[in-house]
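Hi support team,

I submitted a single chain yesterday and got back a structure, but I'm not sure I'm reading the token output correctly. Could someone confirm the output below corresponds to the sequence I sent? I've pasted both exactly as they appear in my results page.

Thanks,
R.
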Amino acid sequence: MDNTRTKSVKTNKGEGKLIWKIHHWSGFYTGIVIAVLCITGSVAVFIPEIDYIIQRMHYSAASSPAKKWHFDQSVVSLTHQYPDYQSLRIEFPEKPGYAGIVHLTVKANTAEDRFAFFVDMGKDKILGRRNHQNSIANYLRQIHVRLYEGNWGRYFVGFGGVAFVIVTITGLMIYGNFMKRQQYPQIRNGKGLRLVMADWHKLLGISSLAFNLMIALTGAWLGLQGWFKVKNPSQYQAAAVMSGEADAQTTVNWEEVLGTTARYFPDLVPLSAVSSTDGSGTVTISGNIKGLIYERAINRLTLSKFGLQPVFKYDIREKPFWHKFFFVQEALHFGDYGGLGLKITYALLGLVSAFLSISGFVVYFYRTAKKSNRKSAPLKITFIYSVIILLVLVIAALVSTLIGYSTAALMMAVVIDGGLVGIVLYGLIRFLRRKFCLPKPVIG
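Hi R., thanks for writing in. Yes, this is the structure output for that exact sequence:
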């Protein structure tokens, strides 16, 4: 009986050590990525609000009061000014006073420029333009979704989400029972920074468990869709009925388009419209349905440019579970379904998640200070790492907005790929050093 109990205790200790190692190494090797994603995500939830402030302050872009939107002449003027445009999308104002935006992709030699023209939707007047790719709004989106690293960056973010799931679950397994045995909340002040940080790490980790798990799972899903070739279930491609050039030059009466949309899809709140340039001769109005928690603008109605007859309608309410599961992920991840109050809650919880990564590093450096013969203080090391990361993010933002998207993307590719190689080499060196009993270098 005693032998059985002893074996059980040893087994439990062995399992505990394994879980601890998984939590430790998952957090150590991906903690920086998780922290960056949490910090950028906390800001990215406010992209519409931040962009609106920039539009008003920097571009003096706003719409005059009006019962209906008027923008037909502005669109005609822009398409005449850029007759070889590659794509046309109109972004409708979400609130009174917001400017409308006409997005044009214009090809110049071998490069493409994506211009955003601000339109007064009350007076049908073009107010100004910017290069959409070099905007703060695009930077915030791209740095969080793919770390400015194309598809591979998106996969990298997806695997970061997987690591976050592992860290969250193993953290619950490690600290769940421990938290039951102490008063909640309890911070052991006066017993050293290591214990204080460890207590805050446990307390905030358990308190934000549900949020972290949701963000991690949805982030992993969104990042790895392309990796696993998961197709968008709402995709529709109309057959070509003319040349692309003729399609682009076909004039559309946008007031009639919106009126027809309201007739065939009355519950749709229009957010954007796309005029085809691929020869299909269609216009597509995309938007939301009030009271539903799904990705923005996934409901749509496609009309023929000739007669404005419906050729395709996508209403998420009529679709099977798989479609609803697919489109609920982004809404849950970005909190874009409950107003400003929910966004503030998401931002605060996101910063808590970033703190968990930072506090985890502090605790780790304290635990391994003597073993690694490290001279620098753990808090100092963590502070330096944090400042470097923030500087990289700020520099990337400045390069993206002042110089250009492609330059910022190249810079981030060098930083991310170089960092990834460095982490792999670090892990390999540690493995070889342990395996062959090589001496440890003095750090700090």
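A quick pointer for reading it: The mean pLDDT is 88. Let us know if anything else looks off.

Best,
Support desk
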